[in-house]
Write a structure and sequence with these properties.
CATH topology of the largest domain: TIM Barrel
CATH superfamily of the largest domain: Glycosidases
Number of helices: 9
Strand content: 25-35%
Radius of gyration: 22 Å
Low-confidence stretches: 1-31
CATH class of the largest domain: Alpha Beta
Structural class: alpha/beta
Strand order of the largest sheet: 1-2-3-4-5-6-7-9
Order of helices and strands: HHEHEHEEHEHEHEEHEEHEEEEEEEEEE
Length: about 450
């Protein structure tokens, strides 16, 4: 059966390549009037659940209750994420603590079995309590490895039909575009995931690639976040983590897993959140507290991001001579937005660079998120921790009467409340807004129409 599947899959993939169907570099065609996405299994789960925020714990064995409760109640994760040997024993221990926030995602081997006992999903029952889903394999580098993951997807889907099934891709795989195309068209997976670990602006091209793939195939797109050392001489700052986490929201990512949270003895990776590996009693680093605060803020913003569809992502550069790879310069009308006429650093903040994401909710309302992309270990000239002020200009001349020209509505990431932010009038139907943002921080707003701010 597996051999037959591989032969058929290889033939179909070859046909797709020959016909020139493989193209994940373009945004899906936009429609006007607005049509919300079809509620596939993955999109429906996203609309109905808190945005996934987790940290990968690798081969640590059964944790004590204190460690579990600290993870959910102090670190503000809302799902445990274990490696491919986590089922059943390690996950059983997490569940036994009885924390009300317990939900889980677990890696599986490419054939869908647990490394711990060789049984499909470790012998866990279908629709187990707290089960979100399973990642099948990780970063297939060849087509043979990719198709082996396909057998695991088929096996788990037959066994647990409602589980979210996740494929995590590597941008380094030579045939990653073909893999994405085949996964989107022919495999019964639900989520497109990827990981890139860098503090440089080269990350934007990869964020853009997997965003496009998610939108094209109507699947949620998730990512791993950089929270490990491969060299203890490395330094990670608060602004690095803020940039790393919040840029995913600007691109519309709805699942976020810190890689890593804690890990058994390992010669390659060290956790950034604990002073030593392989110890449930290891003291926390200052970055644990930083990430916990970021998780809380992402949770609040995630109430809205999970209810929206990304329509565009643009970049405002210090200079017209350089735009990061994969980024697109902002221009009026980006994302179909009808009222923004300029996004730029405010006077006196000329060396600020800005990432801008555009969204619509299922009723067609428009949203914008901007981010100060400065962070300690970024590329020149954004390798700094300075705050900056973003100026956004508006023209409401063509706005219907139900649009309030004097304010916008913003979702406060610290309190979770809606703020009514006044605009500064520049005469007639034009106005501007100045927003002060710390390094790495975002700001999400919608227009003050008579429609509610989409939140779950």
């Amino acid at each position: 059966m597996i051999r037959t599947f591989l032969i058929k899959a290889t033939i179909l993939l070859a046909a797709l390549t020959v016909l020139g169907c493989i193209d994940v570099e373009d945004d899906p065609p936009s429609e006007d009037p607005w049509s919300p996405p079809t509620l596939t299994r993955g999109i429906q789960w996203t609309r109905n659940n808190p945005m996934l925020i987790s940290g990968l714990t690798v081969s640590m064995g059964p944790p004590p209750a204190r460690f579990v409760n600290d993870y959910f109640n102090g670190f503000y994760a809302n799902a445990v994420h274990l490696w491919e040997d986590g089922l059943p024993e390690e996950m059983d221990a997490w569940a036994a603590v009885g924390n009300p926030s317990f939900r889980f995602v677990s890696w599986m081997q490419p054939d869908g079995t647990s490394r711990a006992n060789g049984i499909l999903v470790g012998g866990y029952p279908a629709n187990a309590v707290g089960r979100i889903g399973y990642q099948i394999g990780d970063e297939p580098m060849t087509l043979a490895e990719f198709f082996q993951c396909g057998t695991g997807i088929n096996a788990i889907r037959a066994y647990d039909p409602e589980a979210l099934l996740i494929m995590n891709f590597s941008f380094l795989a030579p045939e990653v575009d073909q893999m994405i195309e085949y996964y989107g068209q022919n495999m019964d997976g639900d989520v497109i995931s990827h990981d890139v670990y860098t503090w440089t602006s080269s990350v934007y091209q990869h964020l853009a690639k997997f965003r496009r793939a998610g939108l094209r195939y109507n699947k949620p797109y998730w990512r791993y976040l950089y929270s490990h050392y491969s060299d203890r001489e490395e330094v990670i700052s608060e602004s690095d983590l803020r940039w790393e986490a919040f840029m995913g929201l600007v691109y519309g990512y709805t699942g976020h897993t810190w890689f890593i949270y804690q890990i058994a003895e390992n010669n390659v990776l060290d956790p950034a959140f604990f002073t030593r590996q392989a110890d449930f009693n290891a003291p926390k680093t200052s970055l644990w507290t930083v990430a916990a605060q970021i998780n809380a803020e992402m949770t609040r913003l995630g109430r809205a991001v999970t209810q929206m569809t990304s329509t565009d992502v643009r970049y405002v550069s210090t200079t017209n001579y350089y735009i990061p790879p994969g980024a697109v310069p902002w221009s009026r009308g980006a994302g179909g937005d009808p009222y923004v006429t300029d996004i730029a650093p405010a006077p006196g903040h000329e060396y600020l660079e800005i990432l801008a994401g555009f969204f619509r909710d299922d009723s067609g309302e428009f949203y914008v998120m901007v981010q100060n992309v400065r962070h300690t270990h970024g590329d020149i000239p954004i390798n700094r921790e300075d705050p900056g002020i973003v100026r956004i200009a508006f023209d409401f001349s063509r706005a219907p009467s139900g649009v309030d020209r004097s304010k916008i509505l913003s979702l406060n990431k610290l309190m979770g409340a809606l703020d009514h932010i006044p605009l500064t009038s520049t005469g007639g139907n034009t106005a501007y807004l100045d927003i002060a943002l710390a390094a790495g921080d975002p700001f999400l707003f919608k227009y003050a129409t008579q429609a509610p701010f989409a939140m779950k």
